[in-house]
Amino acid sequence: MREYPTLKRRRVKAIAVNTLEKDRKLSTYQVTCIRPDGADTDRRIDRLGGIGPDGSGTWNDTIDKVISAIGNGHYFWVQVNGRRVTVVRRVHPTSGRWYLQTEPDYYPHNNLLNLPRCA
Hints:
The chain has one helix at residues 63-71; strands spanning 28-36, 45-51, 58-62, 75-80, 83-91, 98-102. By secondary structure, it is mainly beta. It has one domain (18-102). Strands 3-2-1-4-5-6 form a 6-stranded mixed sheet, with helices on one face.
């Protein structure tokens, strides 16, 4: 009988910039709110915010800085149905711009766009 290799889940991390820049070590950030950009047809988010690595502070930064942070090793996540779901960066197939989405979690709704709006 043939044995198939076990699939490993890949964790994507990110490095923070600006409001996140004070934490030079690789950190974990929970995303709890977004600010959408209504002008884009691809519904790209402008800003994200949430709870800092120590659980007590908050952060709010541009999507470009969060995308850069993820590329540099920091880890961003959202809470969906009581589970932690990783935020990853992707390139939009038509515009070529980086954007964020969550890893597939078999939850039918868009996890990021369903977050509350940041103040």
